[in-house]
From TrEMBL:
Residues annotated as binding 3-methyl-2-oxobutanoate: D44, S45, D83, K112
GO cellular component labels: cytoplasm
Active-site residues annotated for this sequence: E181 (proton acceptor)
The enzyme's E.C. designation: 2.1.2.11
Signal peptide bounds: none
Stated name of the protein: 3-methyl-2-oxobutanoate hydroxymethyltransferase
Family: Belongs to the PanB family.
Residues at which Mg(2+) binds: D44, D83, E114
Role of this protein: Catalyzes the reversible reaction in which hydroxymethyl group from 5,10-methylenetetrahydrofolate is transferred onto alpha-ketoisovalerate to form ketopantoate.
Catalytic activity: (6R)-5,10-methylene-5,6,7,8-tetrahydrofolate + 3-methyl-2-oxobutanoate + H2O = 2-dehydropantoate + (6S)-5,6,7,8-tetrahydrofolate
Cofactor(s) needed by this chain: Mg(2+)
MF GO annotations: 3-methyl-2-oxobutanoate hydroxymethyltransferase activity; magnesium ion binding; methyltransferase activity
Location of this chain's protein in the cell: Cytoplasm
Length: 265
């Protein structure tokens, strides 16, 4: 199958074909996912899922580059987006420096930046320099400590206006994709209907252009907690535990390795 491009994503939105996105952090799983999804996000969620932290804050630009390079080696088809970590885009100038580094060294198709309308100048600067931006609006995990937790966005008239204003301002500034997280379904629907830009949701209902989930959440490997919007398609942790338990039992009892797995003269 041919490489998914930005033009293809826009065609999918126009035709009403849903866009499928999933996270990946290494070449092994990127290769597994590549034929099944349209987009792959190298998310700063790795700080929680695989780093053992309680929040996404703390991931560095260097970490994101390391994981993105690995993912790139596993992908042939999917459109690849890389998260820009906390405060790496605090000013337009810093954003250009860090995003250019990520863009050049990873081979990604776009970078993702959390933030509302106040990031418009940054998005515009990156756009002028040929760097594709997915803007992340609604619930923004990098702002969770500042906001006092993970709070659903778009509630009430003021909340809805803020999300819609963010979407409009950022797309006008040049964002080529939008990610809407943790947002009231009716508001997310208005975002998708109000723009030609493909809108991907996570915890934003079924009425938008596509969906993204963290792979370790939807496959049941991350078990610390499960957000309301996550459906588990696999009990991965238990399946792996069972396999390791069987391996350990066979080693202890002398059942592995047997002749089939040994070299002979």
């Amino acid at each position: 199958m041919s490489k998914i491009t930005l033009s293809k994503l826009y065609e999918m939105k126009k035709s009403g074909e849903k866009i499928v996105m999933i996270t990946a952090y290494d070449a092994l799983f990127a290769k597994i996912f590549d034929d099944e999804v349209d987009m792959v996000l190298v998310g700063d969620s790795l700080n929680m899922s695989f780093g053992g932290h309680s929040e996404t804050l703390g991931a560095s630009v260097e970490q994101m580059i390391y994981h993105a390079r690995a993912v790139r080696r596993g992908l042939k088809r999917a459109y690849m987006v890389v998260d820009m970590p906390f405060c790496s885009c605090a000013t337009p100038e810093l954003a250009l420096q860090n995003c250019a580094k990520v863009y050049e060294s990873t081979g990604c198709d776009a970078v993702k930046i959390e933030g509302g309308a106040h990031m418009a100048d940054t998005v515009a600067l990156l756009n002028r320099n040929g760097i594709a931006v997915m803007s992340h609006i609604g619930l923004k995990p990098q702002f969770s400590r500042f906001m006092g937790g993970y709070k659903v966005s778009g509630r009430g008239e003021e909340g809805a206006r803020e999300v819609l204003s963010d979407a409009r301002t950022l797309t006008e500034a040049g964002a080529v994709l939008l990610l809407v997280e943790g947002t009231i379904r009716s508001v997310a629907n208005q975002v998708a209907l109000g723009t030609d830009v493909p809108v991907i949701g996570i915890g934003a209902g079924a009425g938008i252009d596509g969906q993204v989930l963290v792979w370790s959440d939807m496959c049941g490997f991350f078990t610390e907690f499960r957000p309301k919007f996550v459906k588990r398609y696999l009990d991965g942790a238990e399946l792996v535990k069972g396999a390791v338990r069987e391996y350990a039992r066979e080693v202890k009892e002398g059942g592995f390795p047997i002749e089939e797995f040994e070299y002979k003269q």
